[in-house]
Amino acid sequence: MFEQTNSFIDGRSVPPLDGQYEDKIDPRTGEKLNEVASSGPADVAIAIDSAAAALQAWRDMRPADRGRILNDFGRLIRASESTLGALERAETGKPGREMATLMDLTAQYFEFYGGIVNVMDGEVINQGPNYHVYTRRDPFGVIGVILPWNAPLHQAARAIAPALATGNTVVAKPSEHTSASLVELARMAVEAGIPPGVFNVIVGKGSVIGPAMAHNPHIRKISFTGGIRAGQELGHIAAERILPLTLELGGKSANIVFDDADLDAAAKGSTLAFTWNSGQWCAAGTRLLVQESIYDRFVDKLVAEVGNLRVGPQDDATSGPITTRAQFEKIQSYFAIAEREGLTPAIGGKVASHPGFENGWYIEPTVYTGVTNDMTLAREEIFGPIVCVIPFKDEADALRIANDSEFGLGAGIWSRDIGRVHRVAANLEAGRIVVNEYSGGFVQTPCGGFKQSGYGREQGVDALSHYTQLKSVIIRL
To answer: Is 127 helix (H, G, I), strand (E, B) or coil?
Structure first.
């Protein structure tokens, strides 16, 4: 009998009202792993009602007390990182070496926002002796958090922690492909002292739960991370309700290597930029722009770095499987597209197979050279370990190519010239730019996109303003 993953509502495990479940497949083996509840609109309503009922007591709690509970929660996450990490790894297929970092980040969100719950206080506005005028920030109420499958707990924590810190309650919807770890996190939240109903998890298909959540009048804001099409569909519903959204919708991030860069460091960092999490992260540096004068030399270094990667199911593998079968098949389709566009991989370009794991969903990290920015592989988000190496002439040419994209989530710059770094960073159309490394940044730094990569910000102090509403109070004395 396979285990079943149910929703977690009002502090307890809740099976779907209609008793329907979907199979969850292990990406490492292609075999059935467990069964996941397929909740419907009625289940969504129950979860939202629970959050609405818990709102007033949580909102009215002293911020310092909320902060203490969130810090206790962060400590409990650290104490339970092996349990949470094992659940996430089983569902995503991530190598064990990645999990310690992701669990640390998950805990950091609750610790960070638990420590700054009073930062977003209002201000007094001087209007002379006859008035006392001030502002305050109020929570929205019930927040819907709709999540992707690529980094379940990290993505959840970065939205849930600031939402809870500012006095909102939450109904979180994980991907049906990666639900178990978030359900366990919600159970642990109650153990840490977060009252039942404050943090609920509804499990099921996004195509069902997303619209039901967006239409529900108790939902006062939604944070969504996912694809453009789903974000657009959610946006249409939100427009009808005048419902605030925070959207992170993907990217095709430019990673720019200038001729004065440390090429060894740039090759190593640029490899990580498109292969971390098997390329399954929105800000992956999958458009690698390299100055013409160093292009051939840099490509040789890059291919050598990629050739040293270890792809497989092992704990110490550099790159694991693709998390869903649909994504595995989508990535393969781009190999055919590349061939039609006249591209030949410098390395990779095929499925990887491993003894005992022949049915797993593994893709060899792939480098395409001689790419131009108008090619399909340079325009579309592939969400897999494929990088396009594009030559550029000078600084102006690099900026032209980098900004010629419908996306604008992240970017990288490799250069020893600090003046150039500041000029390029100022002119890149991207929400977060990393220099002389390529990483996801820090919990304390805001994250969000330009253009079709979305709007609003998660992470950092700025996120608090996206989970509160500003109110002015004007008193005539």
So the answer is: coil
